[in-house]
Amino acid sequence: LVLLLFSFAGVLQAQDSTHAGDNLAEIAKIPDPFARMSALEEFYRKSRRDPKKAEVDRNLLLHLTDTAYQIRNFPLVLRYGEDGLARDWNNPRLKMALYFYVARACEEQGVNTGKALRYASFIEELARVEDPTRADAVIWKQFVAPAQRLYMRLLASRARDAADWQKAIESGILALELDAGEEAGKELYETALRARLDEHGRAAAIAALQALCRSPLARPEYLNRLAFWHSQDDRPDMAAELLLSSYGMKRDPAVAYTIGKLLQKTRLAEALDYLAEAVRTGKGETATRARRLLEHLFFNVHAADLSADEQEREYERLMQSAAQRIREGTTL
After folding, report:
1. Beta carbons of 302 and 264 less than 8 angstroms apart
2. pLDDT > 70 in the chain, percent
3. Is the pLDDT of residue 1 over 50?
4. Residue 55, pLDDT score
5. Which of 70, 146, 165, 218 gets the highest tally of CB atoms within 10 A of its CB?
């Protein structure tokens, strides 16, 4: 799993003025994260030995957690992050950051999945209290969206029934609504593929692909997959409509052939047009299958009552029209 590294620089800079003074501020500016981590840990040890301090400064714990996360030292993320979460925070964003760091560390270490799920959900709860109208896009995009993707991954990894899959996919869909980036779409798509393999997750998988196909990330890959699932589930009309949208985005002869197969019983004229395009643009087995079905449907069904000469003329017109659409880049 690729580390979802966040930049909470703005959040860290927004700390209250009670932080641990110039020494910590200077250490936090060290550009190399490994060197910064060593300096922070030394500062931490000195702070613990200082008899004038009742406890280690909470912002030091935040910097330790943040830097440990950057260098992928997840045991230290858990150590300092949990200590930080035990403190009171005036800025809810700082607590959201800590919840996320610890939950991600649990995921990376493969430990305490239940805790990680709770922490990921706490981030959304804090956001709803802090910004119930979602007016602050930063909170929802920077904190809630990745936390919801994390929740989706964690729950999907331990899904046992339809309810688990539904909750997992709902989290992924919320993340997509908040941050319609490529990573969000990819994760939701991959989770949908996993869900489809589980008999309990088939409905959730459909919901995930429907959300993707309605989103700005809609692409032929997603439309074709959802169409295939609808076809498997004996919903040919829904499959055909999705493939028509896909074909409008990308002229794929295999898709044109499948559209022809799906429409042959209900919309024969359209089926013939798509099969003709598949013949014109396809190669190998795709073109062979498309031509075989096209000729059967045209000569034995569509033009069965015409004379042989009329059939040939009509067939030639059909193929010429397909060639013209292809040349001009137009669709039906």
Report:
1. no
2. 92
3. no
4. 63
5. 165
Indicate the pTM of the whole model: 0.85
User: What are the tens digits of pLDDT across the range 18-75?
Assistant: 444 458 889 999 999 999 999 999 999 988 887 766 566 888 999 999 999 999 999 9
Three-state SS letters, the chain: CCCCCCCCHHHHHCCCCCCCHHHHHHHCCCCCHHHHHHHHHHHHHHHHHCCCCCCCCHHHHHHHHHHHHHCCCHHHHHHHHHHHHCCCCCCHHHHHHHHHHHHHHHHHHCCCHHHHHHHHHHHHHHHHHHCCCCCCHHHHHHHHHHHHHHHHHHHHHCCCCHHHHHHHHHHHHHHHHHCCCHHHHHHHHHHHHHHHCCCCCHHHHHHHHHHHHHCCCCCHHHHHHHHHHHHHCCCHHHHHHHHHHHHHHCCCHHHHHHHHHHHCCCCHHHHHHHHHHHHHHCCHHHHHHHHHHHHHHHHHHHCCCCCHHHHHHHHHHHHHHHHHHHHHCCCC
Report residue 319's pLDDT band, with 50, 70 and 90 as the boundaries: very high
Residue 268 · residue 256 · CB < 8 Å: no
Cα separation, 123 vs 34, in Å, equals 28
What type of residue sits at position 275? Answer: L
**Which pair of structure tokens corresponds to residue 251?**
């002229």
- CB 117, CB 155: distance < 8 Å: yes
